Amino acid sequence: MRSEEWSKIEELLDAALELESDERQEFLDGLDSPDLRREVESLLACEKNTNGFLDAPALALSADFFDQDRDERVGQTVGNYRIIHEIGRGGMGTVFLAERADGEFEHKVALKVVRRSFADTELKRRFRRERQILASLNHPNIARLMDGGVSDDGEPYLVMEYVEGARIDNYCQEGKLSTREELRLFLEVCRGVSYAHQHLVVHRDIKPSNILVTKDSVPKLLDFGIAKLIDEEQTGEHTRTEMRAFTLEYASPEQVSGAPVTTASDVYSLGVLLRDLLHGTKRSPDKKIASVELENIVAMARREDPARRYASAVQLAEDVQRYLDGLPVRAQKDSFSYRAGKFIKRNKIGVAAAAIVLATLIGGIIATVWQARRATHQARIAAEQRDRARLEAAKAARINQFLQSIFASANPHWYSSGFGQRGEIKVVDVLEQAGRRIDAELKNEPEIRAELHHTVGTTYLSLGRHEPAQTHFRAALDAYRGLYGEQHPEVAEALYYLAASVHASSDFPAAIALFRQALEMFRAVDPNNTNVPYLLADFSSSLNRVGERVAAEQAAREGLDLARQRYGDEHVLTNGLVATLGFLYMARGDLSQAETYFQTALANLNRTPNGKMSSPQTLEGLGNLAMYKGEFGRAEKYLGEALDISRQTHNETHPTHINILLWLAEIHYVQGAYADAEREAASALDLLRRSAFRKSQYQLRGLILLSLTHARTNRPARAAAYLRDALALLDDVPYGEKFASGILLAEALVLMKREDEAKTRLTQNYEYLARTHSEQHPEAVRARKLLEKLGAPGASAFTQER
Predict the structure, then answer these.
(1) Where are the alpha helices (DSSP H) in 713-774?
(2) Among residues 231, 232, 259, 654, which is most buried (max CB within 10 A)?
(3) Distance CA 622, CA 670 (A)
């Protein structure tokens, strides 16, 4: 029977079952097709003769579904595999632990066998289709398909990778995993689900028992037995099971209602899974999720309307990763108007009854008019919500379609746009391709265009590529202004991200102007926005870099109060702001107070699981502090730890990594370890050549350090060449940043017998630091002392000290 015929029969059967027995005959007499009538009558006869089937205990009926007891199958051979023992059984079959029986190799597998009771021709065809689905999935977080076929007894079977491990919920609870560890495990599950979705497969039964965690802490998705092809309309085949098998607790509303199932259904199930992992249901039923942000993520994944959930498992994973990174998440609570509208839709009778009672109390025409106006208002709200839901669904589908076409460039197969590139395309290549196509392909879709520009911009920013990030943030800002006008939370957020990228490229005055504009807008239209404390942290840093110390401290303390209220004392953002105050005190020369702040931030972070991975900024501050105090061993220790963390969390061309490498080079140079200093400075310059940070303060410092190490090791010609390159670069470095290496530059000039020029540049350096920070800034103090020594006739401060 064709699937469309069966669908028609289902509809007719459902309609007939709603009728009383005496009405059914009239209904059947009205059917035009004798074939359809015959099928419906036969199914109604089956229903009539069930004799309480649904009321019987499930265990009492199990023998009707399975041909043999579990012990009888031990030792039997199915295909090339010998059964060892049963692992588990479900409604349509049994899973056994088995081993190869033909002697080719020794290997244990999970053997899934469909019982003969269900092995009709149609099911065999679907089973073959399932095998094709599983064969297309090759991912470390998905149990692999190894073999399959039909046994001599006519039983379809699949041979799967045997996964030895614990259910993911038991693994988390028995291992007493922290919230951050649970989230990292959950991210791996999302990667497996996302991979399946990219291969156009929906799992449809994601639950803890279908996810096992191995002894190596790798989660594996099992049982794609009721999986569904996303493009089934295109292939002309429907791979859904007619019994609509699913686990009610983890099933999406559309699965339960029998509506079409999409990738959004798996997103819903992932949301339920995340909720259960965070609540720790077995260990502590009353445990609350630790963060409002996490509650919002779970709530968004589990929204009743599929169009209002995350558009994909990738988006869900991105929000979880943003939480782990201490960044604001995209998920927000439902508005009151949305919840009210949904309540009314679900409770039409109750609302109508309440309206009647109210109308009776108020009486007459007044009540009638009020009720009419109320109904009109609610209808308008419902219409707007429906329109918005349709727009959101269309937008999510369009974004998903666009991203799939972009990421296809990483697929090396012949049918993909990435054919010929051997799967070696880089992330930056994909980003550049996406950036070129956004405006061209989405010219008439400004909201989608804005979101994609924002996403590409944040990715560039995380890679440390500030100029292309700014290009995309400006495009997003223009699009949001066109959509919402000048005053809107989306516009404020776009301004903030643009400001952050400008700050990262060291144009601090421009960044400050953008930060101020974004902060004023947030305070006017959305004062509780999650971006505000993050904005204040970055704003304070920019203010400090231009010497606005009072404003910088005010912004940092305001941000710290908000972060503590929202996230607590141990959050990454909270302690980032504590460290920011440490840098502010260091700039004013109060090294003791600065160290107190740095040590407080480091201690708080170290109390959290893997918190140290978020502390390179704090360690760098402690390293700088130790260097200024002459404690070079401590400085090297802190900066070495910061570099190790940076290697794990950043790309090697990221500015944070390069900056720490240059600090280490300077420490080694001061200690006389010239070979180490030269190697580190040369490595930093090599990384800069492969990044977007040429003509920056980092390149200037690297050239000066190489000039110094060559001069100290009797290679004057090379030292002079590096110094010449450094001086030529000075005019291209942002004004304030050129003074960051002022003392090193002065020493290099002295070693090249250019003491007058060294004195001039050192004077400029001192005056700038004293004006923008304070005369007690550690670099200002060093500059002043060296100026005093350079002022002595015939004296060379550096050659005397070294």
Answers:
(1) 716-729, 742-751, 755-772
(2) 654
(3) 17
Q: What is the DSSP string of 405-445?
A: HHHGGG--STTSTTTTTTT---HHHHHHHHHHHHHHH-TT-
Using alpha carbons, select from 250, 247, 276, 265 the residue that is nearest to residue 186: 276
What mean pLDDT, rounded, does the chain reach? 77
Residue 247 has a CB neighbour count (10 Å cut-off) of 16
What is the average per-residue pLDDT within 88-110? Answer: 79
Tokens 């700038």 correspond to 768
CA distance 61 to 65: 7
Separation CA 213–CA 169 (nearest Å): 9
DSSP type of residue 104:
S
CA proximity to 685, closest of 670, 696, 674, 673: 696
Per residue in 141-164, pLDDT (tens digit) is 998 888 888 888 778 888 888 888
Per-residue pLDDT of 340-372, as tens digits, reads 454 455 555 555 555 554 445 545 544 444 455
Structure tokens at 452: 């994609």
How many angstroms separate the CA atoms of 466 and 502, rounded?
7
**pLDDT exceeds 90 at position 266:** yes
H-type alpha helices, 463-507: 466-484, 489-504
The tens digit of pLDDT for each residue in 626-671 reads: 888 888 889 899 888 888 888 887 778 888 888 899 999 999 999 9
Q: Tokens at residue 464, please?
A: 């440390």
- Asked if the model's pLDDT at residue 674 lies above 80, the reply is yes
Contact at 8 Å (CB) between 242 and 228? Answer: no
Chain-centroid distance, C-alpha 686: 31
pLDDT at position 378 over 80:
no
The C-alpha torsion from 265 through 271 and 273 to 279, rounded to 10°, is -160
Determine contact, residues 579/604, Cβ cutoff 8 Å.
no
pLDDT at 509 over 50: yes
| Residues 48-83 as b or e (16 or more Cβ within 10 Å = b) | eeeeeeeeeeeeeeeeebeeeeeeebeebebbbbbb
Q: Tell me the Ramachandran region of residue 100: left when phi exceeds 0, alpha when psi lies from -120 to 50, beta otherwise.
A: beta
Question: Is residue 468 within 8 Å of 431, Cβ to Cβ?
Answer: yes
Sign of the dihedral through C-alpha 335, 340, 341, 343? positive
**Residues 6 or more apart whose Cβ sits within 8 Å of residue 760:** none
- Helices (H) and strands (E) in the chain — how many of each? 34, 11
Q: What is the rounded distance in angstroms from the CA atom of residue 231 to the CA atom of residue 545?
A: 54
Structure tokens at 159: 């041979």
Phi, psi of 241 (to 5 degrees): -80, 135
From CA 523, how far away is CA 496, in angstroms rounded?
A: 13
677: nearest Cα among 712, 648, 628, 626: 712
Select from 774, 685, 704, 795 the least CA-distant residue to 746. Answer: 704
Q: Which two tokens stand for residue 260?
A: 């079409």
Please tell me whether residue 297 adopts helix, strand or coil conformation: helix
Q: Are 160 and 96 in contact (CB under 8 A)?
A: no
Between the alpha carbon of residue 450 and those of residues 2, 240, 494, 518, the distances in Å are 44, 37, 9, 17
Strand blocks (E) in 105-200: 108-114, 145-150, 156-161, 165-167
Q: In sequence order, what are the residues at sequence separation of 6 or more whose Cβ sits closer than 8 angstroms to the Cβ of residue 97?
A: 83, 84, 85, 86, 87, 108, 109, 110, 111, 162
**Tokens 């249901």 sit at which residue?**
281
Highest averaged pLDDT of the listed ranges 125-129, 277-281, 425-429 = 277-281
CA distance linking residue 382 with residue 351, whole number of Å:
15
